[in-house]
Amino acid sequence: MTRGTFANVRIKNLMIPGTEGGITRHFPEGTQMSIFDAAQEYKKSNTPLIILAGTEYGTGSSRDWAAKGTRLLGVRAVVASSFERIHRSNLVGMGVLPLQFEEGTTHQSLQLDGSETYSLPDLNDHLKPQQSLTLHIARSSGQSMDIPVKCRIDTAVEIDYFRHGGILPYVLRQIIAQAG
Questions:
Q1: 3-state secondary structure of 150
Q2: CB 161 within 8 A of CB 95
Q3: How far apart, in whole angstroms, are the C-alpha atoms of residue 32 and residue 24?
Q4: Helix (H, G, I), strand (E, B) or coil at 36
Q5: How many CA atoms lie within 13 A of 107 on its CB side?
Q6: Measured between alpha carbons, how far is 110 from 61 in angstroms, rounded to an integer?
Q7: What confidence score (pLDDT) does residue 152 get?
Q8: Bridging pattern class, strands 49-52 and 75-80
Q9: How many domains does the chain have?
Q10: Scanning 15, 55, 71, 176, which has the fewest C-beta atoms within 10 Å of its C-beta?
Q11: What is the largest CA-CA distance in the chain?
Q12: What gap in Å lies between CA 94 and CA 106, rounded to an integer?
């Protein structure tokens, strides 16, 4: 099932114009391969992944499996213009950080091509619902920029789920704590 995550032919990967569903580039070489194979290569080097997306990210997804597949591929954050309501919640439930570009900012307006590296320098244990964070973007050219993004963890309970790596680890820890 993980191999099929992002393999829908209606998904457009703007890093590779003219292709549909399941194809990406593995950096730093830029080698074209399946998303699953690229994720496996990144996993070998302990490289956490980020998805850059457009509006209503997650619309039409197969509910919780779409978020499970995303997490199992090694994705730790999704930065989108907006999220489908249930999918955003499912991402949090799987321990994936949903971040939203500010109004008027998109991956296209920032001219991102996928070769960049990303970090969240102000992400820490004191994360609050809907907190503004800084997304640091380092381009392969050596240039970098910081842009504001909104954390789309919307409630205190979701913060707890995210801190524990998702709902299942959260519940298991609660059960273990009560048994001890």
A1: strand
A2: yes
A3: 6
A4: helix
A5: 22
A6: 26
A7: 98
A8: parallel
A9: 1
A10: 176
A11: 56
A12: 25
CATH number of the domain that residue 110 is part of: 3.20.19.10
Q: How far apart are CA 81 and CA 6, in angstroms?
A: 18
3-state secondary structure 56-71: CECCCCCCHHHHHHHH
* CA 93 to chain centroid: 13
Return all residues near 15 (Cβ < 8 A) that are at least 6 apart: 24, 25, 113, 114
Nearest to 52 by CA among 12, 89, 20, 17: 12
Q: What is the pTM for the complete model shown?
A: 0.91
pLDDT of residue 62: 61
- Element at 115 (helix H, strand E): none
- Token pair belonging to 10: 């209606």
Contact 21, 9 (CB under 8 A): yes
| Residue numbers of the domain that contains 154 | 2-179
Per-residue pLDDT of the chain (180 residues), as tens digits, is: 788 788 777 777 877 888 877 889 898 888 999 999 999 999 999 999 999 999 999 887 666 688 999 999 999 999 999 999 999 999 999 999 999 999 999 988 999 988 899 999 999 989 999 999 999 999 989 999 999 999 999 999 999 999 999 999 999 999 999 997
Contact 15, 25 (CB under 8 A): yes
Nearest by Cα to 140 from 107, 116, 118, 119: 116
